[in-house]
Specification:
2 copies of one chain form a homodimer. Helices cover about 30% and strands about 25% of the residues of chain A. The first copy, chain A, is an alpha+beta fold and about 650 residues long. In chain A, the strands form 4 sheets. The first copy, chain A, has an 8-stranded mixed sheet with strand order 7-6-5-8-3-2-9-10. In chain A, strands 11, 12, 13, 14, 15 and 16 form a 6-stranded mixed sheet that branches. The longest helix of chain A has about 55 residues, at about 445-495. Chain A starts with 5 loop residues before the first helix and ends with a strand. Residues about 530-545 of chain A have low confidence and may be disordered. The interface between A and B is large, with 103 and 103 residues. Strand 1 (about 15) of chain A pairs antiparallel with strand 4 of chain B, so a sheet runs across the interface.
Amino acid sequence: MTKITAHELAKKQKEISVAEFFERNKHILGFGNQTRALITSVKEGVDNSLDACEEANILPDIYVEIKNGEDSECKIIIEDNGPGVVKKQIPHIFGRLLYGSRFHAIRQSRGQQGIGISAVVLYGQLTTGKHTKIISKIEPNRPAVINELVIDTNKNRAEVIGRDTIHWEKPTGTRIEVSIIADFVRGKRFVYDYLQSTSIVNPHAQITYKELDGNEYFFERTAETLPRKAIEIKPHPYGVELGTLIKMAKYTKSRQLNSFLKTEFSSMGDRTTNAAIEKAGLEKNLNPKQMTRDQFLALHKAFKKVKIMAPSTDCLSPIGETLIKRSLKNETQEISPEFIITASRPPSVYSGNPFQIEVGLVYGGKLPKEEQVKLLRFANRVPLLYQQGGCVTTSAISSIDWRRYGLTQPSGKGIPTGPAIFLTHVSSSLIPFTSESKEAIADVDEIENEIKLAFRECTRKVQHHINKKVRRKKTREKFDLITRILPEIAKKSANMLDKPVPSLDPIITKIMDVVWIEDLIEYEKISRKPVQTTLTDDPEANKEGIITKSKIMVVNYKRSPQKFNLYALIPEDAVVGTVNPKPSKITDKYIKWNLESIPSANKIDIYFELAGLAQGDFDENDLYIDNINPTFVIGADKWEGD
Amino acid sequence: MTKITAHELAKKQKEISVAEFFERNKHILGFGNQTRALITSVKEGVDNSLDACEEANILPDIYVEIKNGEDSECKIIIEDNGPGVVKKQIPHIFGRLLYGSRFHAIRQSRGQQGIGISAVVLYGQLTTGKHTKIISKIEPNRPAVINELVIDTNKNRAEVIGRDTIHWEKPTGTRIEVSIIADFVRGKRFVYDYLQSTSIVNPHAQITYKELDGNEYFFERTAETLPRKAIEIKPHPYGVELGTLIKMAKYTKSRQLNSFLKTEFSSMGDRTTNAAIEKAGLEKNLNPKQMTRDQFLALHKAFKKVKIMAPSTDCLSPIGETLIKRSLKNETQEISPEFIITASRPPSVYSGNPFQIEVGLVYGGKLPKEEQVKLLRFANRVPLLYQQGGCVTTSAISSIDWRRYGLTQPSGKGIPTGPAIFLTHVSSSLIPFTSESKEAIADVDEIENEIKLAFRECTRKVQHHINKKVRRKKTREKFDLITRILPEIAKKSANMLDKPVPSLDPIITKIMDVVWIEDLIEYEKISRKPVQTTLTDDPEANKEGIITKSKIMVVNYKRSPQKFNLYALIPEDAVVGTVNPKPSKITDKYIKWNLESIPSANKIDIYFELAGLAQGDFDENDLYIDNINPTFVIGADKWEGD
């Protein structure tokens, strides 16, 4: 063999277009096999539609259809009522990889890469050789435009093959029609699952799904307002890399260091800016474009020495515990689990990117005992269906020793086995996906930690829930005994002695010596308002077809009168209706009553109504008390403050 | 909230440069945290050097150094004796993502993406703001060039900040010096592990590693020839997508369909080409540039109806069972495992890409019994250290029920627990990595299947090995009994009767009634030739410092003379030395003897030598026999043919 020179090797070196790269590595984008290709295509289309609607403040109304083609070809149609796309942008957005509006914005969104939807177009063309059709309408009084696209992968640019205008009834919207080779038979169930999960965590969206075999499914909108809008923020100094700082300075319009810091970063007020500049030993009026690497390095180090407020979490839009609970209820309808517990962590930050963890746990019922726990994963309200093994949510769960919670787990590591479902939702302005297919989240330490903390909180709640149940059961047995047996004895003794039956209340009270709190929850259907098609901020519009009615009975089985405060937790998104007796305080988290003195052996009834919830969202009261020794109370715990 | 129009949204839409994309998503490239950043940087540099050397037919001699910088900065230096890089290409290869020579070539190589090494430069600049230095020398008699690079991420282009020529002693080579923020303390062990594993599966490479704290390690070259060169092949018709076919036709220089098929695809001879064209109902002399989609579709379908030879597997360069065994031996030096078994599958194809699976299994010894089995993963001779959970090798292993092989595995799924190590090597012209970080292989069905088959073969061999051991042990007990006890009895009886001790051979033979085969392996050190620095094809140069000596004893304990054939398997890469008696055949897989008739109660000694192996590579004979009833033979199995 003879040596080959650098000159000979140089002949082969050339540029690789990003489209060409992904054409060859389509599995990286989630098109690894024909089942996944189907799901990825639907997912990218729907995610794109949801993002577009939310950005334009429109309640999403999405139509998904899968049609039969020749051989194993599927035609996928996804239509929304979003703002549409201006004519000039259509070939870029749908026919060019790495192009979009969400990449440069720091806020929670589904699409962050500017790859997804064009990848679908690319995959369609690669496997079927057919063009993709895009219909877009941007104004109610103008016709829609229709485009036929083809991607030149060597250049990563779309060619518009045909362009026309057509009449379309929608006021505004976008429709994509793309033919791909896919395995509908195997992928069918996953598409349904994906749409269902999506609908549950996006209750403001309405999704219609028409399957290839003609079946039509309708996932109803159950919330008439958009979720809290994720606001775009600026980069935070704590997370910015030195190289990024240098680059930002190169492109800034500011001519002075202090205005550069104040305008280009978040959490940088006058005081913090000055402190950072001083710590770095620099001058306020330095021109950022003329700073040396050493000056940037000093500034970068100074950031870490100055106390800077955490980045605003307005850029996040978590799902909320109620929706998580609902999602899990839905998932376990036929399983009648023993309990569903949720927990959410306060927002946190990794490399300057805000993120927040919410988790849920279902246990018992008909869930299989001999199988691995089922993991449900969500990122920015998008269900993740693949690559579970490579996801930080899985590694976080695997690193917890679940054996002490009654699950099987050899050596205390790995996914435990037992009758449970674990749900994790990560929301972030930048989800660190392990690849462009957005199927798994990378093992960032901060995220892994927060997930572990969230599940620990969950298990604490589970323990609390079980303890409460056990205590209540024990007391109830005692109570049953006393209230059934004692009267019998009294009656019999009285009869034998031919005396009147004595009142047993004081005796029962003496034996029980507790305040007994019991509750009951009922649901009432109310005639539902017609679906609002226009946008509104009116919270009343959020009203559901269900009123949740909570009845609480407080019985004083102590020998002396009792006077204390009672707190009932309520879900954040519930609207409080009638409350009886008059509460002393209502916040978005709880209702508080200063209960009047209850005489011994007397009871008091408490009632409140919640609107804006689905049946079962609120199915157990979480009650707390203060101003009384909590060991004397059954059915409520010590109030630890807000 | 008011609706936002498409025009307003359009203002934010813009192109994302690929460098900018990865700058923000650096975890996708393997720079998710500071530990991984260190390993990824070393890995990309070394992989690049190995590829370059092999392409130029040079035995790699690689120097890796990690130096201390300020704060948690590390300076990484990687130097090779490869062909160097021509001046004009330096900024492209090291400073531009998606640029290179290996992407467009269909053959096994470490780098396939044209991203790796520029990603290191990008990460260095991002975290330290420093330039990267590249030294390259392409001809022995000319000076080396030195370049300082900086990447403009908005354009994905490198700027050369400084360029100069310097004297460098090497005849040719490349040296990169890049400063990155990394965690050396935590990453240290992994860098060592990575280099060690790399050295084991690349025995033709010599690697010197100088650690930050001054320690220097030397991973010696143990094979003086390059591995079989992976030859570039053309795409195979079975795996080509319709869209790719259309694109290829657009860019071909051929003007007629038949010459297009013959020149642009592999395995397309005259007959196959004509058959495909005929099946598609097309004409040979059609101009490929003028064909319609329907014509391409017909041709694409016709490919599947015609029998086309599998793609050539010259494009692959597997590790080989001997090296795999050596790698596992090395990994388990202090563990003294019960056995090490390897298996390799014939090459196979997924989506037109040839691939091949090799596996190994270590069991017992001091391996921990209560922990999950350790998985070792390799792809194209590169050790994979991260993302085990998301890798097809893991899911294939997890889907096998290992309980029947004595490992713990709840519900028969997941990574089993027990004293074992599993190794998997995937080689392919296109490894379907789940992301650009090349840490895990996507779950391609064909690959998963082959891995399962390979491990099944392994477990069969394990079973075989155990059975053989058990049978031999049982017979040996019987044999010991007979050869110790019988003579005692005979001696005593003879003494008592005052008669001479009778010969027991016929009796022993009668009781044993088998042909007994036993073997012994010894190693002898020989004076080693000096390391060859020039390239050579001489197989003698492959000679190691060890001669493996195999001694086989065949004893006929049957009552009649026996005459049969004996086969001893030998590793493919071994060189056969002295063989005694004269064999009837030597292939690269076995040595065969037609054994002369062995009289009853007689024995025959067989001896052979192997060179080119390390001590322990060959530590047990695998013996087969034919022309004799195999149930009468202990120590060899029935020969099933080549």
